[in-house]
Amino acid sequence: MNLIFFDTIANKLKLPILFLLTFIGLNNSFAGKTVTICKDDGVRFITYPDPTTGAYPDVVLWSILGGDITSSNLLTTNPVYYHTAGQFKTYNVSTFTSTGQTQYDTFTIIVRDWPIPAFYFPKDTGYCSGNTFALTLNTTSFTGIKYEWSTGEVTPSIVANNIGKYWVKITIPSDSKTRTCDSVYKEVNITQYPSPTVNLGQDKTMCQNQSIVLVAQGGAGYQYLWTPTGEVTKQITATLPGTYTVQVTTPDNCTATDQIELIDSCPHLVFIPNAVSPNADLLNDVFVKLWNFTPKEYTFSIYNRWGELLFETKDINAGWDCKVNGALVQQDVYVYKINYLDNDKKWYELRGTFFVVR
C-alpha cells in the first residue's frame, strides 16, 4: 500500500516560506484526508513507498480539481496553487505492476479566501450616566472566520453592557500551525460620561415687557437650545410670560433639560380711543390702540355703520389711516372689532364705536 501526504506551500507573495502538513495515506491522522489552506497557497502531492514491501507504485495518476495544475503522473507533483476559494477534490490512482494491486485515494482541499473584509468598529466610546446602556459590537461575516472576544464569546457580534475594555480577534485559520490566512484585532474602551446639571429655578411672576434673565449651567464646549425662542446661548432675556425650556448638551453628547414658567401677574389692558381726526396735523391722525401686553394671535377690523368691512390687519403695530382705496372716509361713526388669543390660551373679542372727525 502506498503512503501519500500533502506538502503545503505558502503563497510566495504573502508568506515566502515553506511549511509542511503531513497526511499519510489511509492511516491519515486528519479525518477524511481534508486539508485547509489559504487562497494563493499551494499543495505538493507526494507518493511514499509501501511500508511493507518498500516498493513504489509503477503507475501514478493524479486528477486535480481547482488548482493551476489539473493532472500529474509524477510520484511527487509540482506545487499546485489554488487561486480561487472553495472546496476541491484531488483523486489518486496508484498501480503496482508486481502485485497487480491498484489503490484509489481521494483528498479534499478547502481553500479559504482572504483578506478579511473591512468593517466598522467603534472608537473609544461611552454612555451617559442615568441612561440604560447596551452597545452592540459588530464585526463581519466571512467564510472560514473564527471569532474570539475578550468575553469568551465566539459570535460575529456581542452586546456590551458594562464599562471596560472589549477586544475581538478574528482569524481565518489554515491547517498549518504557523500559517493563518488573515487576522484582525480590534478593541474599544467603554466609559461612563457625566450628564449635565441644569436648574432654571422656581417659577416666577412678571408683567409683559418686563425683562427676566434666564441662565443655564454648563461649561466649555456645552451647547444650548431654548424653547420657544430658539436661542442657542447660555443665557437669554425673557420679555414675555410663558413656559421656557432649555436643553443642555455636553461635549460627550449627554443632555439634560429644565423649564421654568414665567406667570403673567399683571392685568391686561387695551386703550382704544373714541375718536380720530385724520387732518394731517400728525396728532391723532391714525386710529390705533395701545396694549400693555402682547397677544399670541390678533385680528383688528373696521366696519362702517352698514356693516361693510373697510379695513383688517393681523399686524399688532398697524393702525387705520381712515382711508378706503386711498381716499379718506367721510365724517361718521365707525365700528371696530378686535379678536386676540391671550397667554391663557383663550380668545377674547373687543367691540365698540369711534368717531372720525374731519
Features:
rod-shaped, Immunoglobulin-like, disordered N terminus, 29 strands, 358 residues, 4 domains, single chain, mainly beta, five-stranded mixed beta sheet
Furnish the topology, listing elements before pairings.
Layout: E1 3-9, E2 34-38, E3 42-48, E4 59-64, E5 71-72, E6 80-81, E7 86-96, E8 101-112, E9 125-128, E10 135-138, E11 146-149, E12 157-160, E13 164-173, E14 180-193, E15 204-206, E16 212-215, E17 223-227, E18 235-238, E19 242-249, E20 255-264, E21 270-271, E22 275-276, E23 290-291, E24 297-303, E25 309-313, E26 323-324, E27 327-328, E28 332-341, E29 347-356
Parallel strand pairs: 2-8, 9-14, 15-20, 22-29
Antiparallel strand pairs: 1-3, 3-6, 4-5, 4-7, 7-8, 10-12, 11-13, 13-14, 16-18, 17-19, 19-20, 21-23, 24-25, 24-28, 26-27, 28-29
Please provide a brief summary of the model.
The protein has a 5-stranded mixed beta sheet with strand order 2-8-7-4-5, with no helix packed on it. It contains no helices and 29 strands. With 358 residues, the chain is mainly β.
Structure description:
- It is a single chain.
- β19 and β20 form a beta hairpin.
- The chain has 4 domains: 3-112, Immunoglobulin-like (Sandwich), CATH 2.60.40.10; 125-193, no CATH class; 204-264, Immunoglobulin-like (Sandwich); 270-356, Immunoglobulin-like.
- Strands 2-8-7-4-5 form a 5-stranded mixed sheet, with no helix packed on it. The chain has a 5-stranded mixed sheet with strand order 22-29-28-24-25, with no helix packed on it.
- The radius of gyration is 45 Å and the shape is rod-shaped.
- It is built from no helices and 29 strands.
- The chain is 0% helix and 47% strand.
- The chain starts with a strand and ends with a strand.
- It is an all-beta fold and 358 residues long.
- Residues 1-7 and 10-32 have low confidence and may be disordered.
- It has strands at residues 3-9, 34-38, 42-48, 59-64, 71-72, 80-81, 86-96, 101-112, 125-128, 135-138, 146-149, 157-160, 164-173, 180-193, 204-206, 212-215, 223-227, 235-238, 242-249, 255-264, 270-271, 275-276, 290-291, 297-303, 309-313, 323-324, 327-328, 332-341, 347-356.
